[in-house]
Amino acid sequence: HSTEQTKVADLPTCDSLNTGSLQLVSKLKNPSGSCSVDVSAMWWERAGFKEPCIITACEYVVSLWKPLDTWQWEKIYTWHFIEVPVLQIVPVPDVCNLVCVALGSLEIREIRALLCSSDDESEKQVLLKSGNIKAVLGLTKRRLVSSSGTLCDQQVELMTFAEDGGNKEKQFLMPPEETILTFGEVQGMQDALLGTTTMNNIVIWNLKTGQLLKKMHIDDSYQASVCHKAYSEMGLLFVILSHPCAKEREALGSPAFQLIVINPKTALNMGVMLYCLPQGQAGRFLEGDVRDHVAAAVLTSGTIAIWDLLLGHCTALLPPTSDQNWSFVKWSGTDSHLLAGQKDGNIFIYRY
Amino acid sequence: SLKDLGPISLNWFEELSSEALL
């Protein structure tokens, strides 16, 4: 139950790390005047040909970029928003030619699907959900889960898109009696879904039946944890969490990610590994992304740090570039590249 | 130790789903 049992990953010093494992392959300049907020990669099909495209989001503009030869990019579609700004891109795996965005000021007020008309290739946007939305995640098999409402009338809704991004089915999941903060898929178990809550619980649903299967209390050391990845092995559930609210601790530095193991039958759990900032690296976790066995995080210092979750330590640091701090980082879903963004609209693509 | 996590079941998802139906 206690992080005292948690192994702290080896802490290499800043001096021993460099950007050697990161190779800059491309740069994309988004000239839209507003503040850049997110980036993602997805497959888009045009004239029967599927291409790995980049999606960039500024406060009021979302753009789709197609690859040209020699790592250049051409903007092919742009969606505009007038009243409510974009907060984040919500990629929906296994769907081609459709991406979702969450809009709002501090909290999400709308989720919209962005697509193109098959008739005249013009940009279209469809309002999928509005209200007081707390959390949203795109899931494999063309699904999107969201939670909305306040504690007493909280709704957890699962939408399933058709292959062409059209007609969708809706299903409701049993809400827990506490506010959901984030959702997380369980790798290889498409009927299982995890959620983290404001009461420091991890809940698990059966997506086929909508049942809430278990509520599992995790260590109170870190509040408001974000679930990034989970997998089940030998009857145990391994979960990678990040801790945006973790305070810096002198001895350990600031933990960015943590691996915990849960026995879903008994709800008993313990910390396995803390992934802390390298020694000498100031600041704490701001936001991050996990794919396969690598985790990337933007730190409050404006630097990006990368951890190999199997090796157990930080493998690369990417300091601010062009005198600009990094503000968001994503792993590309179409290849193994790292997409790093700055507020002014510069997106740098690195091979890791 | 993992023993502190109690009895483990490889079919935990199916078992929890059946228990939730009861």
Features:
heterodimer, A: 352 residues, mainly beta, 9-stranded mixed β-sheet, 0% helix, 56% strand, globular, disordered N terminus, B: 22 residues, mainly alpha, 1 helix, 45% helix
State the helicity of chain A in percent bands: under 10%
Mean pLDDT across the residues of chain B is 90
Put simply, the count of helices of chain B is 1
User: Based on DSSP secondary structure assignment, what is the total number of beta strands of chain A?
Assistant: 28
The order of strands across the largest sheet of chain A is: 1-21-20-19-18-14-15-16-17
The amount of beta strand of chain B, in percent, is under 5%
| Secondary-structure content class of chain A | mainly beta
Give the beta-strand count of chain B: 0
Low-confidence stretches of chain A are 1-5
Strand content of chain A: over 45%
Q: On the 0-100 scale, what is the average pLDDT of chain A?
A: 88
How much helicity do the residues of chain B have?
40-55%
Note the gap between the termini of chain A.
35 Å
Give the overall shape of chain A. globular
Cα separation of the termini of chain B:
32 Å
SSE order of chain A: EEEEEEEEEEEEEEEEEEEEEEEEEEEE
Main structural class of chain B: mainly alpha
**Greatest interface by residues involved:** A-B, 24 and 16 residues
Give me the Rg of chain A, rounded: 20 Å
Q: Brief overview, please?
A:
Chain A is mainly beta and 352 residues long. Chain A contains no helices and 28 strands. The two termini of chain A are 35 Å apart.
Task: Please give the structural blueprint.
The complex is a heterodimer of chains A (352) and B (22).
Chain A: E1 7-8, E2 23-29, E3 36-46, E4 49-58, E5 61-67, E6 73-80, E7 86-90, E8 99-104, E9 108-116, E10 123-139, E11 143-148, E12 155-161, E13 168-173, E14 180-187, E15 192-197, E16 201-206, E17 212-217, E18 226-233, E19 236-242, E20 255-262, E21 269-276, E22 285-291, E23 294-299, E24 304-308, E25 313-318, E26 328-331, E27 337-341, E28 346-351
Parallel strand pairs in A: 1-21, 14-18
Antiparallel strand pairs in A: 2-28, 3-4, 4-5, 5-6, 7-8, 8-9, 9-10, 10-11, 11-12, 12-13, 14-15, 15-16, 16-17, 18-19, 19-20, 20-21, 22-23, 23-24, 24-25, 26-27, 27-28
Chain B: H1 12-21
